Amino acid sequence: MSRHGREDTYVNSSEFYEEFIEKRGLRRIRQYTTPRNPPLTQEVRRKFTNSRYIWKMGDKYSKIANKFYGDPRLWWVLAWYNQKPTEGMLKVGDVVYVPQPLSKVLTFFDYGSV
């Protein structure tokens, strides 16, 4: 599973990056666009079952993703489902919901619906 691959890319030739581009001897920068995740509505939530995980000191989304999904790279699923894009938005004792089954969650992202 590649972090990049299906995302669109664009050429950034913004004046903001002019000095950066010049220092590196480049003509332009090719960047990946930010992925747009489907909206998380109540209807979408009903498509999945979920497990509850209590956030502890030292936790990371990647650690929880590895525990439940066997792959730390799936941290973004937890961030999306909990509507907390960064771990800094969580505190000890918060409930993190882990959507399952993973195959159904990933199908939702691939096709926009299950």
How would you describe what is shown here?
- By secondary structure, the protein is α+β, with helices and mostly antiparallel strands.
- It folds into 2 domains: 1-36, no CATH class; 42-111, Membrane-bound Lytic Murein Transglycosylase D, Chain A, CATH 3.10.350.
- Helix content is 32%, strand content 18%.
- The strands form 2 sheets. A two-stranded antiparallel sheet has the order 1-2. Strands 3-4 form a two-stranded antiparallel ribbon.
- The longest helix is centred in the last third of the chain and has 10 residues, at 102-111.
- The protein starts with 8 loop residues before the first strand and ends with a helix.
- The model has no long low-confidence stretch (mean pLDDT 84).
Overall pLDDT:
84
Tally of individual helices: 5
Strand order of the largest sheet: 1-2
CATH homology-level superfamily of the largest domain: LysM domain
Q: Could you estimate the helical fraction of the residues in percent? A: 25-40%
Cα-atom Rg, whole angstroms?
18 Å
In sequence order, what are the helices and strands, one letter per element?
EHEHEHHEH
- CATH top level label of the largest domain: Alpha Beta
